[in-house]
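Design job #97: recover the sequence.
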């Protein structure tokens, strides 16, 4: 099981479970492969019936798929997480200081720490908002930072996602599913909760309001055809706020208003899941039908707040990323706690020469792309593919960076076809909320390459996710049990599964055709009910009750977060796919639906 070329999260080089994994390993051993297989199959069924899916564009076999989930959690001990937390806090403070500076006095540019031309030539730099005073002086309030571990086990930052980081709904859904299906696994482990995320997010958004009393917060979505629409609907429902599209909002009398069945209602804070380009056709792209005409003028006057702020994307430009360590030293007078992956800039002639000569052992990426687009993985490409790609790099070197290939860490993963744990590569995206204080949700979204031998954690290419545990201590005890199988709560879950899967899920774990609808929903209810009667609390943070006033977007969403939407987890940045032709459709006269929706989240 342990790897020699890769850091193994779960096992030592001697093949022994690491101390913080011994409780989970013992639990899985007691449970046995057949029972884990049954629960694994039911988990997939429950995700499908709850609409926890993602969208793959350009797939002729169908766009909507269940997000694969592995039941073996990634576990981070307390002391290890403390260092990660400190490093993430340091990083987001420096990035906000950088954004505040470049849209203001520009001291870091005058001092030559970051090249002026690098910032001003970024496609995400927005001159239209230069000089705006943003609430709390913060530009990026919701951050998703992609972390990987090298062969020595060191955490490295691969990318900062500062525009519309996606995937947190899967983090929350994973934890809720685990507490229902594997309640005994949590006993005596001291796992820190994550379900308070939506409450903390709502509190942050309210704090940005230009009005002190009873602010109105909405979530702006591109619509139901967006790949992350499930997440938009889920978060709006959990926070108790309105889910709106651009057509639900309008500008009048110097304010932004929402159309409701009871008349117009003033909007104070917009949590937008739409890229800058599509926000306001009067300021940015005139062909956008997703935004709100006149929004940016109201924003400039300080009468509405946007999260994240317009222009924040310049700081997650892959070329600007290379200067984040210098930003930390410049603004905070500190050494970086979390290091970057070594990065070569195409705009630097010496770096460009290195990229060209070493392309076979590098990942070369377009600075403004995501999701595997505009990317070359040297070791997975042919000589002809490399030569063709490098011609594009030479023609526009500012648009490309190069990074050495990093051996992603591995984690024990359950494969139903063998009933065994096998190593699979993983990365991690923690979520950071930046307001008056910095709040980091313990853990994050762990993505896993479920295809054997693959380094690609992207869900559209066979990847899935894991629940991520952060422990209260470094080495929790093995949970005591009276007999093999575990506690009352776990026995109750097992009995519930057995009662609803008889004739539905064969011993091998696959689902019989034609049985997935009502039976799956009943299964989820029975498991939850029995687990709760046995003393297992199923967490689920709820915001304030949503207004009964409805918007067209909210009516389209239905029971947000409960019924099927379309969603897609964040694109894999750490192990990008081999280069391929972009499947992004060309914009029509009015940008709507899938074409614009693809750009909203990362």
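Job complete. Output follows.
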């Amino acid at each position: 099981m342990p790897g020699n070329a890769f850091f193994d999260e779960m096992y030592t080089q001697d093949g022994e479970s690491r101390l913080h994994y011994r409780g989970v390993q013992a639990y899985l051993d007691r449970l046995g492969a057949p029972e884990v297989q049954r629960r694994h199959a039911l988990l997939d069924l429950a995700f499908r019936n709850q609409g926890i899916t993602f969208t793959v564009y350009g797939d002729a076999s169908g766009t909507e798929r269940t997000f694969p989930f592995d039941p073996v959690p990634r576990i981070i001990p307390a002391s290890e997480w403390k260092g990660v937390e400190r490093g993430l806090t340091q990083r987001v403070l420096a990035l906000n200081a950088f954004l505040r500076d470049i849209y203001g006095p520009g001291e870091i540019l005058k001092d030559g720490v970051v090249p002026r031309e690098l910032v001003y030539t970024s496609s995400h730099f927005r001159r239209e908002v230069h000089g705006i005073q943003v609430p709390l002086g913060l530009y990026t309030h919701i951050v998703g930072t992609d972390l990987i571990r090298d062969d020595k086990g060191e955490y490295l930052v691969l990318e900062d996602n500062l525009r519309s980081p996606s995937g947190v709904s899967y983090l929350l859904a994973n934890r809720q599913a685990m507490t229902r299906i594997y309640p005994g696994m949590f006993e005596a482990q001291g796992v820190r909760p994550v379900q308070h995320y939506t409450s903390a997010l709502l509190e942050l958004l309210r704090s940005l309001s230009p009005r002190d009393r009873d602010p109105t917060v909405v979530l702006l979505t591109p619509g139901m055809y967006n790949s992350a629409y499930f997440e938009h609907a889920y978060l709006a429902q959990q926070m108790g706020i309105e889910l709106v599209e651009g057509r639900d909002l309008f500008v009048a009398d110097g304010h932004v208003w929402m159309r409701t069945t009871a008349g117009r209602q003033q909007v104070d804070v917009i949590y937008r899941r739409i890229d800058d380009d599509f926000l306001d056709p009067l300021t940015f792209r005139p062909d956008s039908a997703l935004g709100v005409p006149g929004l940016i003028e109201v924003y400039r006057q300080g009468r509405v707040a946007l999260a994240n702020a317009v222009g924040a994307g310049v700081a997650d430009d892959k070329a600007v990323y290379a200067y984040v360590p210098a930003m930390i030293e410049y603004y905070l007078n500190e050494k970086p706690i979390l290091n970057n992956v070594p990065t070569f800039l195409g705009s630097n002639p010496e770096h460009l020469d290195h990229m060209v000569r070493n392309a076979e052992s590098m990942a070369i990426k377009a600075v403004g792309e995501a999701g595997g687009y505009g990317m070359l993985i040297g070791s997975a490409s042919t000589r002809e593919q490399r030569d063709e790609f490098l011609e594009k790099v030479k023609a526009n070197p500012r648009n490309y960076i190069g990074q050495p290939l990093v051996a992603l860490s591995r984690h024990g993963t359950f494969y139903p076809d063998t009933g065994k744990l096998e190593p699979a590569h993983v990365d991690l995206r923690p979520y950071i909320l930046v307001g008056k204080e910095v709040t980091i949700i313990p853990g994050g979204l762990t993505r896993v390459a479920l295809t054997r031998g693959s380094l690609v954690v992207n869900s559209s290419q066979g990847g899935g996710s894991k629940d991520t545990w952060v422990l209260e201590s470094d080495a929790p005890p093995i949970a005591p049990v009276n007999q093999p199988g575990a506690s009352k709560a776990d026995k109750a879950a097992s009995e519930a599964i057995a009662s609803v899967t008889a004739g539905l899920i064969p011993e091998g774990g696959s689902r019989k055709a034609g049985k997935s609808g009502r039976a799956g929903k009943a299964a989820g209810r029975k498991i939850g009910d029995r687990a709760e009667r046995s003393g297992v609390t199923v967490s689920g943070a709820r915001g304030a009750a949503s207004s009964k006033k409805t918007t067209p977007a909210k009516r389209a969403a239905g029971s947000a977060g409960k019924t099927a939407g379309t969603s897609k987890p964040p694109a894999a940045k750490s192990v990008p796919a081999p280069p391929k032709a972009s499947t992004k459709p060309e914009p029509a006269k009015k940008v709507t639906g899938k074409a614009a929706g693809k750009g909203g989240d990362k």
